[in-house]
């Protein structure tokens, strides 16, 4: 019986590569890398919200008796905290390693990496589901194929984002399973293959409509949940822990928005290997809506919640 033994770096990279078309959300939101957390107090960084000013007018050809008015610059921020330590640990006995495991990558690494990746993605999904949205639109679709409202719904969401000055590029619509099923009936959807896209998300992308790339096949969100958003609407912090010097083998790697560490050592008292994958993470809704030119309202204006009323 032959066994496949890989170097530590190859094991991590191979496993993350297997998830290329399975884990979606980390690739469509703002990502915050490890370097930004170096020395950060309380493991927290702040996403900077630029100052907003309103121009004034000075009286035309006036007598210059009154001075101009000066405004105060006020930058605001949204905190992003690295506060989750995700891991998957398994033990492999001498007998299993010798007689049962044909491929460490397939039989050990892949299930572990899958478990950690799904947990990481769930933090982004939670941030989306629990966000406070400034605006909500309604999509009315049912099992009889009443899908006439999908285009109108996304046009309304587009208008809302336009008025909030959200960038027009890279806008997405994320659909839960029930919403996706209704949307797939729409004759308005443009198939990605027909549009010539070579996106790495092609397996999850089901079409384009009203300036949005529409993403389905994502079971990390509730089946009746949907949201239209720009990547900056949500921030995902992800850092691979350092490999400890006491580990027999280990490596860190980052791939398509996910960073992980793998370590492996041997327990001689119980004659078994220990394999552990782990990652630090945190995710937030960027709720930077303002009252005109004033303080933050605590609402996400870079995304629009879609209320699905189908049955």
Please characterize this protein's 3D structure.
The protein is α+β, with helices and mostly antiparallel strands. Helix content is 23%, strand content 29%. The chain has six helices and 14 strands. The protein has helices at 8-18, 94-100, 104-129, 149-163, 177-183, 192-195, and strands at 30-32, 44-49, 76-81, 84-93, 136-139, 172-175, 205-209, 212-215, 225-229, 234-239, 249-255, 258-267, 272-285, 303-308. Strands 1, 4, 10, 11, 12 and 13 form a six-stranded mixed beta sheet that branches. It has a six-stranded mixed beta sheet with strand order 5-14-9-6-8-7. α1 crosses α3. The longest helix is centred in the middle third of the chain and has 26 residues, at 104-129. The N and C termini lie far apart (53 Å).
What general outline do the C-alpha atoms trace? flat
Number of helices: 6
First-residue to last-residue Cα separation: 53 Å
What share of residues are in beta strands? 25-35%
| Average of pLDDT | 80
Low-confidence stretches: 1-6, 143-147, 192-200
**What's the gyration radius in Å?**
24 Å
Write down the oligomeric state: single chain
User: Level of helix content?
Assistant: 10-25%
């Amino acid at each position: 019986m032959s066994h496949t033994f890989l170097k530590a770096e190859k094991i991590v990279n191979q496993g993350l590569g297997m998830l290329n078309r399975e884990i979606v959300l980390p690739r469509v939101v703002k990502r915050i890398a490890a370097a930004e957390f170096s020395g950060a107090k309380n493991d927290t960084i702040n996403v900077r919200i630029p100052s907003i000013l309103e121009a004034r007018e000075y009286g035309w050809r006036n007598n210059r008796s009154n001075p101009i008015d000066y405004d105060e610059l006020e930058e605001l921020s949204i905190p992003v905290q690295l506060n989750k330590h995700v891991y998957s640990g398994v033990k492999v006995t001498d007998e299993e390693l010798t007689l049962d495991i044909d491929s460490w990558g397939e039989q050990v690494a892949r299930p572990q990496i899958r478990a950690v990746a799904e947990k990481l993605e769930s933090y982004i999904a939670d941030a989306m589901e629990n966000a406070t949205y400034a605006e909500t639109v309604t999509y009315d679709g049912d099992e009889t194929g009443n899908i006439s409202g999908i285009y109108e719904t996304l046009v309304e969401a587009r208008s809302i984002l336009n008025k909030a000055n959200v960038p027009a590029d890279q806008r997405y619509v994320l659909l839960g399973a029930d919403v996706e099923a209704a949307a797939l009936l729409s004759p308005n959807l443009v198939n990605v293959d027909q549009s010539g896209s070579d996106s790495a998300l092609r397996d999850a992308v089901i079409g384009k409509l009203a300036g949005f790339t529409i993403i389905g096949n994502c079971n990390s969100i509730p089946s009746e949940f949907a949201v239209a958003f720009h990547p900056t609407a949500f921030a995902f912090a992800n850092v691979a822990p350092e490999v400890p010097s006491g580990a027999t083998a280990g490596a860190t790697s980052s791939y398509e928005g996910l960073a992980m560490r793998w370590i492996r050592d041997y327990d001689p008292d119980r004659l078994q290997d220990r394999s552990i994958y782990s990652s630090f993470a945190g995710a937030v809704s960027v709720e930077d809506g303002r009252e005109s030119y004033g303080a933050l309202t605590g609402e996400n204006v870079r995304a629009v919640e879609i209320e699905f009323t189908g049955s």
